[in-house]
Every structure is written in structure tokens, then in C-alpha cells.
Design a protein that fits this description.
Belongs to the small heat shock protein (HSP20) family. This is SHSP domain-containing protein. The chain is 0% helix and 35% strand. It is mainly beta and 148 residues long. The radius of gyration is 23 Å and the shape is elongated.
């Protein structure tokens, strides 16, 4: 069930508490107006069979704009691209798109094999297929006779 996250209509100005329609109150962090170097990429992470799959929409970027760094326990995606600075004579009525750098680091729920991980970009969707690491294997150990 999705939570109704619309703010209550009687929210006081400057309040440090967010009140939801369901009556729950949550402490709000100060909203900063400073720009940041990179915004966070949305990522879907799922498991199917013996692999983890990460998907992220990265519209307008080519494979040379994206870097993927992987360890057995962590995935990092970076998109470096044009900042989209507008000319001073342009006037935006609405600006919701982020045209600069995007980044995301995700802790993986299971160890994966970085050497067998593959990434592809198709129609603006980055897909990373990460085979799970084989964590257990059987080894037969010979017993030595130390009684002699």
C-alpha cells in the first residue's frame, strides 16, 4: 500500500515538521537552495535467478557519458554531461529536468562477481546484469596421519 504523502493544508510557514494527511508528523531537514555537484539517479534493483539486475533511466546520455564502478558489494553509476546552462534571455516557466551530473551508489544485498558483470544502454535505460558470486563450494581435504 502506498502512503499518502501530500502535505496537510494547514502546514505553518517555516515549520521544521512535515505533517501528512494521515496525521503523522516527521521532522524536516532544512531545505537548502545551494546547488549540488550531482543529483541522485533513480535505480531499480531486483534479483532474478542467480543474478542481480539494476536499471536506471538515463535519458540523453551516451555510453561515453556514463561510468559504472562495481565491487562485490557495491554499485556506483556516474553520468557526466552537458550542464544545460541557459542563455540569460531565456525565461523558464517550469524547469524540472536536471541536465548536469548524476550519481548513485547502491549497496548490494548479495555479493556479486564483478568480472562477469555486464552493462548496456538501450533507449535511455541503463541495465546492469550482475551474476551472484558463488559463495560456497565443496572441497575434499585429505587427512594426514601424524601418528608416525
Amino acid at each position: 500500500m502506498l502512503r499518502n504523502t501530500f502535505f496537510a493544508q494547514n502546514q505553518s510557514a517555516g515549520s521544521k515538521t512535515i505533517t501528512f494527511r494521515d496525521g503523522e508528523e516527521v521532522e524536516a531537514e532544512d531545505l537548502a537552495t545551494d546547488s549540488v555537484d550531482a543529483s541522485e539517479l533513480p535505480v531499480d534493483l531486483l534479483r532474478t535467478g542467480n543474478k542481480l539486475i539494476a536499471r536506471s533511466p538515463i535519458a540523453g546520455a551516451g555510453i561515453h557519458d556514463i561510468s559504472v564502478t562495481i565491487t562485490p558489494n557495491q554499485l556506483t553509476i556516474n553520468k557526466n554531461s552537458w550542464q544545460g546552462r541557459s542563455e540569460e534571455k531565456e525565461h523558464f516557466y517550469l524547469q524540472e529536468c536536471h541536465w548536469g551530473n548524476l550519481s548513485r551508489t547502491v549497496d548490494l544485498p548479495k555479493p556479486i562477481d564483478p568480472d562477469r558483470t555486464r552493462a548496456s544502454l538501450n533507449n535511455g535505460i541503463l541495465t546492469i546484469i550482475m551474476p551472484l558470486a558463488s559463495t560456497s563450494h565443496t572441497k575434499i581435504i585429505q587427512i594426514q596421519d601424524d601418528s608416525r
